[in-house]
Amino acid sequence: MASMPMVVDRAEKFEKVCGILDRHARRASSLIPILQAIQHEYRYLPEEVLTYVAMSLGVPAARVYGVATFYAHFALQPKGKHVIRMCDGTACHVKQSIPVLNALRKKLGTSEKSNTTPDMMFTVETVACLGACGLAPVIVIDEQVHGQITPERALALVDEIKAQEASLAGASAVAEQPSAEVSHV
User: End of a domain among 24, 42, 70?
Assistant: First the structure.
């Protein structure tokens, strides 16, 4: 019975994954939508979850890893809550995308090798092309396109997100505080 707590912990850990698998009737043919749903839930594809998915679908783990690593959309490393994608295609590069990227990395303390902030709030990625060459240089923040971006505008957008997050954090902190009792004399 010593292994019982591990079974309970594992079941709790993968409860959301089991729900996703169940919604797709645990069909191996639904592997891509399953991985998309898992990434939406976790913001990346944890290794232990990929192994569990393979086992649950009855397919080799190599197949699941193959799909997860083939498509650029999938991430095997944790991403921040807000993902900033900087285009470095030809048009954006010529229109000075690198100074924008450098300003973002400097402000957020990220680098090419470590592209996610320690607080998991931001991930800064470069992409080959975002398909908005007429707006170069372009960044996409949380699926919202920002064209003709300058380092100053990019930093202002980051500051806006930080302010929104701070107000959300403040609002939830206030909501969590117990209400003060008022006594009437």
Answer: 70
pTM for the whole thing? Answer: 0.71
Provide the 10 A C-beta neighbour count for residue 33. 13
Domain that holds residue 49: 4-70
Q: Is there a single domain that holds both residue 161 and residue 89?
A: yes
CA-based radius of gyration for the chain:
21
Q: What are phi and psi of 179, to 5 degrees?
A: -70, 140
Tell me: cis bond preceding 137? Omega within 30 of 0 counts: yes
Domain boundary among 70, 105, 121: 70
Tens of pLDDT, residues 49-108: 999 999 999 999 999 999 999 987 899 988 999 999 999 999 999 999 999 999 999 999
